[in-house]
Design brief:
22 strands; eight-stranded antiparallel beta sheet; mainly beta; rod-shaped
């Protein structure tokens, strides 16, 4: 009877070694002199005295032993025993025979790739990760980029970011200011800064204190120094041209978040002016306090542009 559909082309088709019969029903199956164990009796074609035998009825198989339904004699002849293999299963492909076309798309999952086995050679030269989130081990670099602030057309008297320094895993920060622009009709301006300080997760502006900072030398311009403690508006610089644009860096050392006896300390270098200041005696002793945000304001005009990058410092 012909096959319906694809003719079977796989399977271990073998002719077993010849067997000499005797007065017994049980015989060993050998292939090239070695014991052979078929999957079942149904995988064998057995011809006895020119007659094909029915598996399970005329003979059974256990391991590498075939047992006929009745004992044979020396005059009986086992003409041949053919092994069909497992014609219904593919089995194990020969090495180097599975091509790319044999695998469906998305068939190779992460679980099938051994750990640490995707090398740089397998990655493209250019990778577009703009629509993905890339997580970097915070200990992999001494300075890790955490956030980009690119605010334009602000047009408000103050510009505040209340959660700027609130990043898990970092206590110390560098705020690299690319540009601060303001607008004013006044001939003289001050750029003031305040910080959101307080218990972790609930910091408020100046921590609600009217004398929020202790000042350690504010250099305004080229010759004026301000050594005043107990104030709540810290001047970063004075200028007659707030729309000129100012750049610099603010360092925030948040000792108060985790270390006993420490307190937040902020220092800046903005254009030609240097300032350093710390939280005041009204709350710095609490180890549960830290700086979480920042607010900028020109004394008379508006803040129009604030562009900066925040980095976490490995400690």
């Amino acid at each position: 009877m012909p096959f319906i559909g694809q003719q079977p082309i796989t399977g271990a088709y073998s002719k077993l070694d010849a067997i000499t019969t005797s007065a017994t029903a049980t015989y060993n199956l050998l292939l090239d002199g070695s014991a052979y164990s078929p999957a079942s009796a149904n995988h064998l074609l057995v011809s006895l005295n020119g007659v094909m035998q029915a598996p399970q009825d005329s003979f059974t198989v256990s391991g590498s032993t075939i047992t006929f339904a009745s004992a044979l004699t020396s005059s009986d002849s086992i003409d041949f025993i053919m092994v069909l293999g497992d014609v219904l299963n593919v089995g194990t492909p020969t090495d180097g025979t599975v091509s790319t076309n044999k695998l469906i798309n998305n068939a190779v999952t992460t679980a099938k790739i051994a750990n640490n086995n995707v090398t740089v050679a397998k990655l493209p030269t250019t990778m577009d990760l703009s629509s993905n989130t890339l997580t970097i081990n915070k200990n992999a670099s001494a300075l890790v980029h955490l956030r980009r602030i690119d605010a334009t057309s602000i047009g408000a008297s103050t510009y505040a970011i209340t959660d700027l320094f609130d990043h898990t895993g970092f206590e110390h920060f560098e705020l690299h200011i690319e540009r601060i622009l303001g607008s004013s009709s006044s001939g003289s301006e001050n750029l003031d800064v305040k910080f959101y300080i307080g218990p972790v997760g609930s910091a408020t502006l100046d921590n609600g204190s009217s004398t929020a900072y202790s000042v350690d030398n504010i250099n305004l311009g080229t010759g004026t120094h301000r050594n005043v403690n107990g104030v709540d508006n810290m001047e970063l610089f004075t200028t007659n041209t707030p729309n000129k644009g100012w750049q610099g860096r603010i360092t925030c050392v948040n000792f108060g978040a985790r270390q006993n006896g420490g307190y937040p300390n902020m220092s800046t270098t903005l254009s030609a002016n240097t300032v350093s200041f710390v939280s005041s005696n009204t709350y710095y002793a609490s180890t549960n306090h830290r700086v979480e945000g920042i607010r900028f304001a020109f004394t008379n005009g508006n803040v129009d542009t604030f562009k900066a990058d925040l980095y976490g410092v490995k400690t």
